[in-house]
Amino acid sequence: MSGAAEGEHPIDLRAAAVAVAVPIALFLVGLVVIMLVTGTAVRGWRIYPKLVGAAVIVAVGVTGSVPVTVVASAIVVALLACSMVLTDWRPSEPAVLNP
């Protein structure tokens, strides 16, 4: 029994930061796998930002605290989402109403 003293954390905070970072990074890698399975080119410009984002999140999780990891992960995911929305190259089709 470790018997943590009062005021001490019974778990390692570094492990907690990694526990936050890894699932988010795996989510981004999962998006890449889905994109590759559905036909996106391996060297496509839509693949690399997600892999870089996953690497950044894991690096912050290994070196930073839990709050820093959470904020950095949120910023990376928000930037990726904005870039995916703003760089959508497919032309939108006008809405057609059938009577």
Helix/strand layout:
Elements: H1 13-37, H2 48-63, H3 66-86
Helix pairs in contact: 1-2, 1-3, 2-3
Q: Your description of this structure?
A:
This protein has 99 residues and is mainly α. The chain has a domain at 26-85. It is 63% helix and 0% strand. It is built from 3 helices and no strands. The chain has helices at 13-37, 48-63, 66-86. Helix 1 packs antiparallel against helix 2. The chain is elongated and about 70 Å long. It starts with 12 loop residues before the first helix and ends in a 13-residue tail after the last helix. The mean pLDDT is 85.
Note the main attributes of this structure.
mainly alpha; 0% strand; 99 residues
Element order: H for helix, E for strand: HHH
Mean pLDDT: 85
Largest sheet data: none
The number of helical segments is 3
What's the overall geometry? elongated
Q: Span between N and C termini?
A: 72 Å
SSE class = mainly alpha
Number-wise, the strands total 0
In terms of per-residue confidence, which ranges show pLDDT below 50 for 5 or more consecutive residues? none
* Computed Rg: 19 Å
Strand coverage percent: under 5%
Helix content: 55-70%
Gist of the model:
Helix content is 63%, strand content 0%. It is an all-alpha fold.
